[in-house]
Amino acid sequence: MMGVVDLGLGNMSNVLRAVRGTAVRDVYGVERASALIIPGVGSFSAAMPTLETVREAIIGRVREGIPVLGICLGLQLLYEGSEEGPGRGLSIFRGTVKRFSGVRVPHIGWNQVEPSGESVLLKGIRRGEFFYFVHSYYAPVSEFTRGLTDYGGAFSSVVEKGNVFGVQFHPEKSGQAGARVLRNFGVMA
């Protein structure tokens, strides 16, 4: 069962429809899932109360090797922290999520993703494909960056580390290219 972690924030229904998943709201649901998606529309701090209730279960599932995908805020929660506010992320990726500066925020609309290294999620996606973004914070480029997007400078729009994946864009709102990303993730579930 594809479990979609319900953080009590927006965008659950779109993701559930796109992946035909089941909402998981507690440790039991996380532990039963064969794969997890952590979606999100909202703020880092607003997600903390719910994340704290399932943090150890998610980390345990990562250690067991089940596939985990963070979408938008879900990608940001995979990091240690965020400039957006207090709270401790899942710390799967090192570093702090940064706020855009020198450009209009939020970054809303269609933008290109350029592959950076070999990527499971971007397999079959053409170079420079457009995806839909809505965010004011971003993950810096690192050794785990598999997709780059330029908005006032390059940032990680796709990250991958073992069985953990993250996308800053919304695949559930990105047409055929987004559907392909979700299928690429689903193949692993």
Task: Report on this structure.
With 189 residues, the protein is α/β, with parallel strands linked by helices. It has a single domain, classed as 3-Layer(aba) Sandwich (Rossmann fold), CATH 3.40.50. Helix content is 28%, strand content 33%. The strands form two sheets. Strands 2-1-3-4-12-11-10-7-8 form a nine-stranded mixed β-sheet, with helices on both faces. β3, α3 and β4 form a beta-alpha-beta unit. The termini are close together.
In short:
This protein has 189 residues and is an alpha/beta fold. The chain is built from five helices and twelve strands. Heterodimer of HisH and HisF.
Largest sheet: 9 strands, mixed
CATH superfamily, please? Class I glutamine amidotransferase (GATase) domain
> What fraction, in percent, of the residue positions are helical?
25-40%
H/E element string? EHEHEHEHEEEEEEEEH
Query: How many strand elements?
Result: 12
Identify the CATH class: Alpha Beta
- Do you know the CATH architecture? 3-Layer(aba) Sandwich
> How many domains make up the 3D coordinates?
1
Q: Looking across the biggest beta sheet, what order are the strands in?
A: 2-1-3-4-12-11-10-7-8
Report the oligomer.
single chain
